[in-house]
Amino acid sequence: MVTATDPGLVRGQNEDAVFADAGLGLAILADGMGGYNAGEVASVMATTLLAANFAQFMAASPMRDAESMRAEVMHQRLLAEISAVNTAIFQAAESQPRYAGMGTTLVVACFYDNRMSVAHLGDSRLYRLRGGYFEQLTKDHSLLQEQLDSGMISPEEARHSLNKNLVTRALGVDAVVETEIHDYDVQLDDIFLLCSDGLSDMLDDTEIALAVQTLGDNLALAAEHLVHMANDNGGRDNISVILVRVRGDYTVSRGWWQKLLARLK
C-alpha cells in the first residue's frame, strides 16, 4: 500500500486525509469540507479515529488456516465504527462554532480472508484494475450521479458540469449517517485505487487506468504520477490517492476473528 496527497494548485490548504496499513489490511481516505480549517479537522478525525479503533482488534499476524470470516460481521463492525466517528464529528461541529457545518467524504477498504469490504460516503472513489480491465467499484453519492442515473444529463455533459462537488451523503453532517457497503473478491495482482475527487475531476477514467496499468509495478511512482497529472490538468482541488496491490493470500488470524466476535456480542 502507498499513499500520496497534495494540496493542488488552487487551494490554500489540504483538507484530504489518508491512512493505509498493509499489516492491518486497512486503507482509509477522507476529503473534508466546511469552513476555515474545519474540513481538515473532519477528515483527520475520520481517518485517525477509524484507524485507531480498527487497530485495537485487528490481528498482528495472519494465519493461513484461519476460519473464513462472514462478511456480514465485518459490515456490522464497519457500520458501528463509522457511526461512532460520525457522532464525534457531528458533536464537534455542533459544540464549536468554528467547526459548524464541517463534514467529510469517506471511502474505507478492509482486506481480510482474500476478500475486501468497502464502505463509502460521498464522491471519493475506489477503482479496481484486474487483468487489464479498470472499473469504478463505488458509485458517487452526489447530485451529479443522481442526474446521470435519471438520464437528465449524459456522461459527457457530466464531465463539464458545475455540480460536481455537491454530495448527497457525507460523514459528520447529520446526526445519523447512511453508509453504503459492499464486498468484493480479491485476486492476485489486483490493484485498487482509492482517490478523492481532486483526482477524478481532473482526469478521466481512461487516463487514470493507463497510469495505473503502466506503472503498477511501482506503486509509489504511480501515485506520484497521478498527482502530477492532476496538477498538470489544473489541480483545482486537493488530490489524494491510495494504491493497493495484492501480492498474495491475505487471511485473518483466529485471534482477530475471536476478538471481533467478542466485541460484537
UniProtKB/TrEMBL annotation:
<dbReference type="InterPro" id="IPR036457">
    <property type="entry name" value="PPM-type-like_dom_sf"/>
</dbReference>
<dbReference type="InterPro" id="IPR001932">
    <property type="entry name" value="PPM-type_phosphatase-like_dom"/>
</dbReference>
<protein>
    <submittedName>
        <fullName>Protein phosphatase</fullName>
    </submittedName>
</protein>
<dbReference type="GO" id="GO:0004722">
    <property type="term" value="F:protein serine/threonine phosphatase activity"/>
</dbReference>
<dbReference type="InterPro" id="IPR015655">
    <property type="entry name" value="PP2C"/>
</dbReference>
<feature type="domain" description="PPM-type phosphatase">
    <location>
        <begin position="1"/>
        <end position="246"/>
    </location>
</feature>
<dbReference type="Pfam" id="PF13672">
    <property type="entry name" value="PP2C_2"/>
</dbReference>
